[in-house]
Design goal:
The chain has 288 residues and is an alpha/beta fold. It is 39% helix and 13% strand. It has 11 helices and 8 strands. The chain has an 8-stranded parallel barrel, surrounded by 7 helices. The longest helix has 18 residues, at 260-277. It is globular and about 70 Å long. The model is unreliable at 1-6 (pLDDT under 50). The protein binds 3-methyl-2-oxobutanoic acid. 3-methyl-2-oxobutanoic acid is lined by residues 46, 65, 67-69, 107, 161, 203, 205, 226, 236, 238.
């Protein structure tokens, strides 16, 4: 059975906790809202395939994001910009199939919602109907207000994403957002705008920790931080970064919990040595 780690603000017997709780049904956005009410922190990870998603689901991660970071981490692109809605539908369906309990949130990729609310609804509807996800995520604060409002009115839960928004890399680069009074005020306006539009949570990416804490204090929906310090309601990391599979440098805000690149490389080399040296397969691996 999952051991409850020492954590603050869990329900008294821990049974309804998002992480470490006893529930086996799918997590819903209502469960997420209740966690904010009781001040429970929760973890989110990305996932792009059924097998990896099943590992995280069995580990009790309550929310999995089929991020368009799949572009960099799974599909071999340099940015998230080329990722298509067809690709997101395929990956999201696999993640849904690999899981039982986690709420699955899928990114609307670049170009699938910027035209306006009607386009956003068409795209999100595909991810909900074809892939079976429980919510979608899209980037932008005030500029995405109307898209969020129509999706929520149509019954599709939306996670918003403000601060650094990687789909706008060509316009904003990969820089800390919300530094300075004017930029901080804009971030606060963006946060309130997505909450007013009906988003059930908001990702804050690469913003100063003090500002993320302030946003978390003023919003009644949960904030999900990535590079936003320790005082958000939840945290998210890209799984290939936190498990050490990503090649080269990872952002400073990532904590590496394993070195899968080393483990997998060592295993591949050991296998190759066995094949070349004739020590695999042996009699025990043979059929007669
Ligand atoms: O695509 C993604 O993985 C994301 C996270 C970084 C929040 O948007």
């Amino acid at each position: 059975m999952t051991q409850l780690p020492a954590a603050q603000n869990r329900p008294s017997d821990g049974s309804k906790a998002l992480y470490g709780g006893k529930g086996t049904r799918r997590i819903t956005v209502r469960d997420i809202a209740l966690a904010k009410e009781r001040g429970e922190k929760w973890p989110m990870l990305t996932a792009y395939d059924a097998m990896t998603a099943s590992v995280f689901d069995e580990a009790g991660i309550p929310v999995l994001l089929v991020g368009d970071s799949a572009g960099n981490c799974h599909l071999g692109y340099d940015t998230t910009v080329p990722v298509t809605l067809d690709q997101m539908a395929l990956l999201s369906a696999a993640v849904v199939r690999g899981t039982r309990r986690a709420l699955i949130v899928a990114d609307l990729p670049f170009g699938s919602y910027q035209e306006g609310p009607a386009q956003a609804l068409r795209s999100a509807t595909r991810l909900v109907k074809e892939a079976g996800v429980g919510a979608v995520k899209l980037e932008g604060g005030e500029r995405s207000h109307e898209q969020i409002r129509l999706l929520v009115e149509s019954g599709i839960p939306v996670m918003a994403h403000i601060g650094l928004t990687p789909q706008s890399v060509h316009a904003m680069g990969y820089r800390v957002q919300g530094r300075g009074e004017e930029a901080a005020q804009q971030l606060l306006r963006d946060a309130k705008s997505v909450q007013d539009a009906g988003a059930f949570a908001v990702v804050l990416e690469l913003v100063p920790a003090e500002l993320a804490a302030e946003v978390t204090r003023v919003l009644h929906i949960p904030t999900v931080g990535i590079g936003a310090g320790p005082r958000t309601d939840a945290q998210v990391l890209v799984w290939t970064d936190m498990l050490g599979l990503t090649a080269g440098r990872v952002p400073k805000f990532v904590k590496k919990y394993a070195d899968l690149r080393q483990v997998m490389g060592d295993a591949a080399r050991a296998y190759a040595e066995d094949v070349v040296g004739g020590t695999f397969p042996l009699e025990e691996h043979s059929v007669h």
